[in-house]
Design a protein that fits this description.
The chain is 49% helix and 19% strand. With 207 residues, the chain is an alpha+beta fold. The chain is globular, with a radius of gyration of 18 Å.
């Protein structure tokens, strides 16, 4: 949705600023022995920027039917979500081990579902909350993916009820309107889980 895309736009702008500074720094300090290093750095910056734009286009409703790596897409969303999360007073962090093998998912539905749930989850936190919103990706044992969201209060802060049930309703409604598919469930330990079936591989979707 446009609301979810707007939520992640500050992260995109921040990332592009960092990427431009990276490219500028390597170009201004280029020497004959550093050409290969400069080329690698610029190529990496371009690829990261391109991946971010693909994510934003998916949030704005672009449908290509492509598949993508769940691990790469989650990492990209977390990177873009750190700035808006910080503006809400919390950090956004990955937890757990990155899956050893790629888990292929329908890219646009996966991005939309994860992004919408992240937005609603972060915005559901009570005002003044401090701590870390956590994201964990694991396989479901059948080729699909499970994305778990949680919240770790800062040391010394008091625990508070999490609005998981309300977030499930809001996210489910948004996904139905967008035509995205995912099973969204409250998790037992103060969190949320999204379940995705394995995708039928078509064209690649790099992130």
């Amino acid at each position: 949705s446009s609301d979810t895309a707007s939520f992640f736009l500050p992260g995109l702008i921040h990332q592009f600023g960092n990427l431009l500074l990276t490219v500028q720094g390597h170009v201004l300090h280029l020497d004959a022995e550093g050409i290969k290093r400069m080329q690698d750095a610029v190529l990496g910056a371009v690829q990261r920027g391109s991946a971010s734009l693909q994510v934003i286009r998916a949030l704005l409703g672009e449908q290509t039917g492509a598949t993508g790596s769940a691990g790469d897409l989650v990492l990209q969303l977390v990177e873009l979500g750190r700035v808006p999360a910080r503006e809400c007073g919390v950090s956004l962090e990955m937890r757990g081990e990155h899956p050893n093998e790629a888990i292929w998912v329908a890219a646009e539905s996966f991005v939309m579902a994860c992004a919408a749930t992240l937005r609603h989850w972060i915005q559901s936190l009570p005002s003044g909350s401090t701590g870390a919103v956590t994201v964990n990706l694991r396989g479901d044992g059948a080729g699909g993916a499970v994305v778990a969201l949680g919240f770790e209060p800062a040391v010394g802060s008091l625990p508070f009820p999490m609005a998981a049930a309300e977030v499930v309703l809001a996210v489910t409604s948004e996904l139905e309107a967008a035509g995205a598919t995912a099973q969204v469930l409250p998790a037992p330990a103060r969190g949320m889980e999204l379940h995705f079936v394995a995708a039928t591989f078509t064209s690649g979707y790099e992130a």
